[in-house]
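Exam revision sheet. Question 4 asks you to relate a sequence to its structure. Input first:
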Amino acid sequence: MKVVTRWCLDGKPCRRKPDLVAIIYGGTEVIRGHNESITMNGSLSYDPDVGQGNHSGLNFAWYYGEITGNYSGVQTAMKDSFTGVNESTINYNGSFSGRESITFSTATMSVDETYVVKLVVTKDYRSSSVYQIIHLVKGEPPQISQRCLVNCELKISPSVKLSIQSECQGSQCSKISSYDWIFYEQYPSAPNNDIAWKKVQDLHLITSTPLDSSSIVIKEDSLTGGKNYRLALFVKTTEGLPGMSAYDISTASPPTGGTCSITPSSGISLKTDFNLSCSDWASDSTPLSYQFQYQLENGLYSMIYYGLNSTVISWLPPGNQSNNYTVKFVVTVTDKYGASAPAVNLSVQVKPSELLSSENISSFLTANDSLFNDVIKDGDLSKAAQIANAVLQAVSQHTTMDSKEKAKIQDFIIESIVSLRVNNIPDLLQSSSVIGSAIQDTETVSIKSLVSSLSAIEAMTSFLWNIAQLKDVADIPLVTQSAENLGSCLNSVLKAGAMIASGNLGSGVQEQGKSLVTTSMKIISLVGDAVLASSVPDEEMISIKTTELAMTLGRHSPDKLAELEIEGGDGRFVLPADKKSLVSRITEATFVDTQMLSIPFNPYTWDNTKQRVNSDVLALDLKDETRKLIKVSNLTNDVIIVTPLKPQTVSLENPQYFTKNDDLRFHEIDVKYDNTLIMLEITPDESSINLFVYMRYGQRPTTQEHDLNATVSKNERCVWMPSAHDRNGGITECSVNPLTPIETLAKQPGKYFLGVQSYNTTAANSHKRKRRSCFGNGRQKRSCVEVKDPHPLPLRAKI
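Answer key, structure tokens:
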């Protein structure tokens, strides 16, 4: 943006005013139908002095005409480059003035010709102009435009993602069958002063959306600062009608040439005044802002300072002894458009203070005249967070400190920190880093602190949701970090709440534990909403990871849900392939949000099924545009859920059982719950032996009466299960891996009997009298003696 300097009557320079901004709705280039009435809208134009929407003092003048000469700027998907419009090639033959929008008929214009409409906006001594190229075609093509969602300043920040969503007007919008995004970069002018545009190759490498999606997201740090680009969208309907829209984009130049440092290079926590300073950064887009950030040993993010001051003096928390007490900082310098210079990495050695010894730590923190109490009274969250994090890190390293003393310190810090107001994202990072550090020891934290912490976490999550909806480029990089901090806090509350709910401290206390868990789960859902607030449909899914809890968040077009795979932690969901079945349950929604949660422990410890949980706990929510849950049931195909079982304690004994040919050896399996998966590992020791396996519910199987039978050899395993409707038919599954377990689903609790029969394929037993089974259906000529059942086997048994 140019800045105009004017001289006042006293000979001194007047206040400099920025250029006016002229904008025509629809973009730089569009396709419109012949014989249609076209409305040109300039209401988005503005004076930066007064902001958008205020047209006071603005004058609008419109000019229209056609392009003459050899103009090659009609963009098609096949072109790798084209020449921009030269003002000398435009023949203006009409004008309007005084209105922010005009409407004119194209009936007198020629089809397949190219026209230009120019808007000139004036105010006081300033003037700005913009033009729109119009290609006329037969029919009523869809009227396509682009709406910026994220990074929408006059000059965009190359260090923040750019999100654009297509919009459509007209009766043909519902018939659009294809989208195609093309990106051009402007290159230095040719000798005749024409502007050259070249297609950016391999656009998919810098986008996080498919190029056939109705939206596009260009990844952060993919564009060069100080450049001009053009983003074009081409669509086609099922009837072959084309539509297009092109927008010009300018990137801000990030600050350059400066340095950042921290002095001294080593010191003592809560004693040494460290000077964090940046200097000599140059930019045309001032003022510059400075961010000094670090990450705690437990993974939580915190902020020393964020603002316009280039120098900050602060205490620092101690580093980890295993890393020579090193504390690492990331410094970011950003201009007014949100364009950031490459991050500057600094490190400093910070040793623990004697003030934080196990003997002194409590009095240092809680004394009436303590520094911590003073900064709390002053409302200085930044200093309070530095002190609190230093104390909490020291407490976590004092392994001999009494648990009651730890709880007392945790309670005091939490009560103090939650009393301070959170006004911005840096405040949120500071406050949540303290709360997360204070409650990470779930065995010592008190219920009172958990309740206070959860209340503060809920308030911060609501604040994050409100901030995320604004899509400010300065906040977007910090939203994910904030979500990870809040997720870490909620992970601790879930874990502590689960322990309380399963304890023996009385029903009242157990109910408090349940409340902590159920409330935390609701807040986790809102954290996901906040992260997705700046997403567009079909953008790459976002992972939020803490030391335990993990979230996978996505926003999808309804027609892209079929066979969608969502992974998080060690688990995975796969939605059914039946598109109609899914979409029919999502009426009038332009997108669907998916929130997958993976927790490596069971927070629902009060439920009577807790003993059955032997894997991560997985959850998947589908939400509509209003953040309401979408109920999905009675699908024609199942949702596939994949989660590995956790390692189980298996007896070191590897039992071996012997069977004679034609003898059935029986085993009993006691199943306590509905729908229990039984896994059997059965392998013969000798290659000449085949094993026949039979299973039956409620009574011993026979070779003719069973619910499952299998054949196992050294080289192969085959399992046959009778059909529920036709016991003569069934399903057979074979595997060349004999170690693959035999799996069957026990649909009801009770006793399941297993019979194993061996057959020696090489034994010369053809001359032996065949011994009859006691449980076959053949004629019995003698009595049989049954063998007493062995002890029940575990559900995963080796035989």
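Marking note for examiners. Residues 476-501 form the longest helix (26 residues).
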